Amino acid sequence: MAGLGPVPFAAMWFADMGADVIRIDRIARARSHTEGVEPSYIRRGRRSVGIDLKQPAGRDVALDLIWASDAVLEGFRPGVMERLGIGPDVCHERNPSLVYGRMTGWGQSGPWSSMAGHDIDYLALSGMLHAIGPAERPVPPLNLAADYGGGGMMLIAGVLAGVLAGQMGRGGCVVDAAMVDGAAYLGSTPYALLGEGWWQAKRESNLLDGGAPYYRTYETADGEHMAVGAIEPQFYTELLAGLGLGPDDLPHQNSVPDWPEISERFAATFRTRTRDEWSEIFEGTDACVAPVLSMLEAPLHPHNVARGTFVNHHGTGHPAPAPRFDGAGASQPDQLEPGQHTDEVLAQLGYARERISELRAGGAIGD
Question: Which of 288, 305, 322 is the last residue of a domain?
Answer without folding.
Answer: 305
